[in-house]
Amino acid sequence: MDSQEFREFGKAAVDYIADYFETIRERPVLPSVKPGYLGDLLPKEPPQTGESWQDVLQDVDRIIMPGLTHWHSPRFHAYYPTAHSFPAVVGEMLSAGFGCVGLSWIASPAYTELEVVMMNWLGKLLDLPEEFLNCSEGPGGGIIQGSASEVTFIGLLAAKEKKVKALMELNPDLKESDIKGKLVAYASDQSNSSVEKAGLLGSMPMRLLPANAEGKLTASTLLEAIRQDKNNGLIPCYVVACLGTTPTCAFDDLEELGPICNKEEIWLHVDAAYAGSAFACPEYRYLMKGVEFSDSFNFNPHKWMLVNFDCSAMWVKNAKYLVEAFNVQRIYLKDQHKGLAPEYRHWQISLGRRFRALKLWFVLKIYGVEGIQKHIRHQVDLAKYFEELVGRDKRFEVCTSSMGLVTFRLRGNDSLTQQLLEKVDDRKHIFVVAGRSDGKFVIRFAVCSRLTEKRDVDFSWEELLSQAEEIVPSKNKINTELSDKRSIASIELTDAAREKIRMEKSK
Ligand SMILES: Cc1ncc(COP(=O)(O)O)c(C=O)c1O
């Protein structure tokens, strides 16, 4: 393909994406294909001779589009948001177009240098303590990683490095393998699956401690676990606190957990994968009070900050522990710029690096701080509106509501809510997933798409109501409302209302 054809293909692809977004609201959120559908649509062998780009684009429409789940449909309410914006899409396009791999500073100075500046911008946007920033005097700094899962794992490896070194310095007779076999990590049972996985990958038992009724890990639970483990000869090494848990968007209290970790010399990592974006708005920063006690902090602009996947921001107070854990030298990778620019390959698992800072830059530059704040506030308002709608219907109960996530259920046995979820997802008009709150089966409703508006929340609520109607008919709802009213203030009932109750009863 020559550059002229590339121009045509590229422009047609951009048009295709724009058309897709203009029609996304009308598409059922979930696809109707069955497992294995795609294998039947493609030949078993690769084509012997090349085909035209027009054919390829037609195949996308015929084969790929029917198998897409429309994550950016305004009626997609599952999981947490995955970010999307046109500036970020163009950033990805240019990054692929340049096609460099930033494995060292000299491999493309702009890659490293833009990332340094973007991580400072982003840190300032969230009002993180200065010591985390690349522009601070100290050894702290920020880097873009691929995912929160990766970051939690990298934090664990750095914590291990720090703990082993410290103990061996104190007692040179200790063997590294003996120390490593005794290290233990902690998080709450509300933490994301990736936290448990980090423990598995890093060969460090991750104790999932019971959260309280609000979904938080309390100081007393953590202290008790540390005490037990120390009594059993284990070495507490790593705590993952969560700001915005996956099940209910609960916030651990860093002011409670932080001092314990600092006193016990345990690495404190903060996983704010989803909710971290909200700290761009000053009114939510009270939820990250105590962040100064942490050793590493992470949030995903690729969740709620309009930067397409992948873009996971990680800051550490002292990058030395990352570099010491990951620094492997080779003659062809000589660090020529020590101290002047970070060699980010020593801060991460892979050698090669994508130019993720470009899409982040485009989003920050084109939306500006105000645009990002507006986006977050709008989505929180929509979730509040949904909460209000649910709260108005006595057949339902709101279980939790935090940021852009509401969990709710039909009153009564869990099976009612399970049925509702199955019915709604079968119809594919909206997409919600199951969760658990305080031991009960709930439906999670997250405001995900940047396209979601009040009318979409109304649509989704109507869809839920229409299916709930088949499980708990609103006849019961009227009865509840009337009987409730009677029990609170029966004298306020008009004659007409009394007559209505009598008629209902006699049916
Ligand atoms: C609190 C929390 N942590 C971590 C993750 C994992 O994020 P990633 O897909 O970037 O690894 C999620 C995903 O939803 C999450 O909600």
Largest sheet: 7 strands, mixed
- Principal-axis shape: globular
Number of domains: 3
Order of helices and strands: HHHHHEHHEHEHEHEEHEHHEEHEEHHH
Overall pLDDT metric: 91
Number of alpha- plus pi-helical segments: 17
Q: What small-molecule ligands were found?
A: pyridoxal-5'-phosphate
CATH domain topology of the largest domain: Aspartate Aminotransferase, domain 2
Instruction: Give the name of the CATH superfamily of the largest domain.
Output: Type I PLP-dependent aspartate aminotransferase-like (Major domain)
Q: Low-confidence spans: pLDDT under 50, at least 5 residues?
A: 478-494
Rg of Cα set = 26 Å
Strand order of the largest sheet: 1-7-6-5-4-2-3
Q: Which structural class is indicated by helix and strand composition?
A: alpha/beta
Assembly category: single chain
CATH architecture of the largest domain: 3-Layer(aba) Sandwich
The helical percent reads: 40-55%
Distance between the termini: 74 Å
CATH class category of the largest domain: Alpha Beta
Report the portion of residues in β strands.
5-15%
Give the strand tally: 11
Give a brief description.
Helices cover 47% and strands 12% of the residues. With 507 residues, the protein is α/β, with parallel strands linked by helices.
Descriptive notes:
The chain is α/β, with parallel strands linked by helices and 507 residues long. The chain has 3 domains: 3-90, Up-down Bundle (dopa decarboxylase, N-terminal domain), CATH 1.20.1340.10; 100-354, Type I PLP-dependent aspartate aminotransferase-like (Major domain) (Aspartate Aminotransferase, domain 2, 3-Layer(aba) Sandwich), CATH 3.40.640.10; 377-492, Aspartate Aminotransferase, domain 1, CATH 3.90.1150. It has 17 helices and 11 strands. It has a 7-stranded mixed beta sheet, sandwiched between helices. A hairpin with a 2-residue loop joins β8 (396-402) and β9 (405-410). The protein starts with a helix and ends with a helix. The relative contact order is 0.13. The site of pyridoxal-5'-phosphate has 15 residues, from α6.
